Amino acid sequence: MNGVGPAVTQVTAAAAEGRTTAVEQVRRCAAAHARTARLGAFTQVDVGSALAEAQRADRRGTAGSLPLRGVVLAVKDNIDTAGFATTAGTPALRTHRPRRDAEVVRTLRGAGAVVLGKANMHELAYGVTGDNPAFGRVCHPLRPGRIPGGSSSGSAAAVAAGVVTAALGTETGCSVRVPAALCGVVGFRPTVGACSGQGMVPVSWTRDTVGVLARDVADIRAVDAVLRPQSGRAPDADGDPLHGLRLAAPHRPFRQGLAPPLRAVFEARLAALEEAGVRIVEADPPPGVQDAAARCGLTIARYETPHGIDGYLAAHGGTARFTDVAAQVASPDVARLLRPLSEERVAEEDYRAALADRARLGRLLDGFVAHHHVDGLLVPTAPVTAPTLLGGDRVEIGGRPAAAFPLLVRNADISSVLGLPALTLPAAADESGLPFGIDLQFPAGADSRLLAVAHACERLWRCAGAPGPRRGHRSSEHHA
Asked: Considering 35, 63, 163, 324, which has the largest number of Cβ atoms within 10 A of its Cβ?
């Protein structure tokens, strides 16, 4: 799983030193895909096109600097990629073939990266299991009966299985971080607007962002440095990002329902941070913030999706519109949310009220951060490891059926609704070997600091021992 195949930083260094080529990396990834095709991680793969693209990158790489030469990508199938269909995992767009790359894809290709194929996803990015009746279910790379998370399901599975060096996903409601956490890779969502959203099948212009999935934080930073050249200093110029850091580690509801082994892992990671001098503030946000996030977030998305898809399709010169797409939705859970919007869309006054609720939610969180003088939040990314799929949005947890949404997004949803930068790190595995992730959530615009802190946490936790007693710089506080 994580650790299969070389990292972004390894292949780019090897390519720069003449120890590998982009062509060799495509061949390696194509062979890995052939071995793991049962995962259903891709809707489309074009090895011939990828090899031709790699040959061009190798020729260009001898004449100049290509920071991502040797990197082989999976691109989530709601991001336009020339040479491929952009299906968004839905039948109505099966033959939709944009002529131009989305800006993020064009930027990465310009830096030498090669696209192997389009990653499978929960249909129209409206779910968290990866169960897609139209293009096939995405399986967990360790346990085929478990879910990989979603909606960037194939992106996470392809990275975790070592099929690609890195992947692009999108996040509206935890759709990068939940699958990254369940599959045991790193998932980063930047502040909304930090990366171009041009060329994406939209869910919500208020909440959508492209995200990056890779095996470690150094790889995320290497890709992010190309996507956001303003991202700041090189990793070796960070100094000590943990010096003077204060992080809130709330209990309710973020740690509720955690199995004892997962709770012990989380406590151990907090203890390691305390030993490194980080102040851990155990304070809970004001009551009801999760409910407010879920309430206003879904209303905003359901208002913006029909308008956004109409605009996207019109910009591509087609005659289809949202109603045509909704009529052909194959997933029952997605159909329940979107088909009614063909008859009656969310009212303007309800949308405006939801935006006002979102603004109040932002003020509540800002007040919490200011009151406790913290730099960010640290929480379990999801309260469980990958559950067993029953179908659609239904999963089995502890022997009982449950709805995957909103359970899996409970801990990470506030940052998605508010468009904040956040990153999930692999923390450990449960007793059956399934990964467990820890989420760092920072204020808007603090993307570069978040990446520096995450890099330091990753290095620290790799050296952390077994769970032990908490001590050091802990403070228990309550929101005023």
From this structure: 163
pTM of the model: 0.95
pLDDT tens-digit series, residues 235-254: 566 789 999 999 999 999 99
Q: Is the four-CA dihedral 424, 425, 430, 433 of positive or negative sign?
A: positive
Tens of pLDDT, residue by residue over 342-369, are 999 999 999 999 999 999 999 999 999 9
pLDDT of residue 11: 96
The per-residue pLDDT for 238 is 74
| Predicted confidence (pLDDT) per residue in 31-61, tens digit | 999 999 999 999 999 999 999 999 999 999 8
Segment 76-124, tens digit of pLDDT: 999 999 999 999 999 999 999 999 999 999 999 999 999 999 999 999 9
Q: In 3D, which of 1, 16, 331 has the Cα closest to residue 159?
A: 1
pLDDT tens-digit readout, 53-88:
999 999 998 766 899 999 999 999 999 999 999 999
Annotated active-site residue in 118, 151, 152, 153: 151
Cα angle: 348, vertex 352, 357; to 5 degrees: 145
- Give catalytic status of residue 152 as yes or no: no
> Is 155 among the catalytic positions?
no
Active-site choice (152, 155, 175, 448): 175
Query: So what's the pLDDT on residue 476?
Result: 59
